[in-house]
Amino acid sequence: MLTKRIIPCIDVDLDEDGNPAVYTGVNFEDLKYTGDPVEMAKQYNEAGADEFVFLDITASADGRETMLDTVSRVADEVFIPLTVGGGIRTKDDIKETLRAGADKVSINTAALQRPELVEEGAKAFGNQCIVISVDARRRYDEEGEFYADVDGESCWFECTIKGGREGTGIDVVEWAREAESRGAGELFVNSIDADGTKDGYDIPLTKAVCDNVSTPVIASSGCGGPEDMYEVFTEAGADAGLAASIFHFDEYSIQDVKSYLDERDVPVRL
């Protein structure tokens, strides 16, 4: 079995003075200041994270460019794979983000609006650089393609854009399969319903994606502790577990999580 990856993530926005800052919220709302992105990146690099994710959470919604100067400063502090997302709309945006120091780019809104971008990016920079992110929310109606049983009810998962602000009517599983066929090297699955709750990952969502693709899947949103990581690896089949709050507020360390998993025979890099 391949080693499971533990990935801290920072959600970055501009503060009132226009300076980049890390924020943490619940269900993509009620954001609170958490820290400086460069300092936090340095701390996680030293703490034994397997990878690091930097998300510019309002670039797409605000129609602005990704904060590449900050990305460059973060890249100077981390010596593990760095994924950057937010505001990436074109092949040139991918190129400039990689040039700033990212190893991979995470694309959501632009790929849904123009799926050819996935192929263009994969062809130009390699599949391993292209991470397709989905911000999923549950829907309990008959407009989906792939359904899962959630607490006795049948639901499907809808792709949203602009930080979860707009629905698309596109089924997450259907889109994951298409993104894979177009050359995505990884899938980053976020749950709007679970985001920031610390009630555990959305297992039905993650499992639905993992069961239908062979591309590595990063589970995101809802992690409240090591037991949630264990569950998403063993029950949903995720390849990596992403978390924010539990690490940001020192509830658990990266090593706490890895030790817990190692003791339960989940392969991790210690």
From TrEMBL:
Name the UniProt record assigns to this protein: Imidazole glycerol phosphate synthase subunit HisF
One example of a Gene Ontology biological process annotation: L-histidine biosynthetic process
Record InterPro entries: Aldolase_TIM (IPR013785), His_biosynth (IPR006062), HisF (IPR004651), IGPS_HisA/HisF (IPR050064), RibuloseP-bd_barrel (IPR011060)
Domain of life: Archaea
Any one GO cellular component localisation term in the record: cytoplasm
Subcellular location: Cytoplasm
Pfam families: His_biosynth
Source species: Halogranum rubrum
E.C. number(s) listed in UniProt: 4.3.2.10
Uppermost EC category: lyase
Main location as per UniProt: cytoplasm
Cited function: IGPS catalyzes the conversion of PRFAR and glutamine to IGP, AICAR and glutamate. The HisF subunit catalyzes the cyclization activity that produces IGP and AICAR from PRFAR using the ammonia provided by the HisH subunit.
Catalytic activity: 5-[(5-phospho-1-deoxy-D-ribulos-1-ylimino)methylamino]-1-(5-phospho-beta-D-ribosyl)imidazole-4-carboxamide + L-glutamine = D-erythro-1-(imidazol-4-yl)glycerol 3-phosphate + 5-amino-1-(5-phospho-beta-D-ribosyl)imidazole-4-carboxamide + L-glutamate + H(+)
Subunit (UniProt): Heterodimer of HisH and HisF.
Catalytic residue positions: D11, D135
UniProt pathway: Amino-acid biosynthesis; L-histidine biosynthesis; L-histidine from 5-phospho-alpha-D-ribose 1-diphosphate: step 5/9
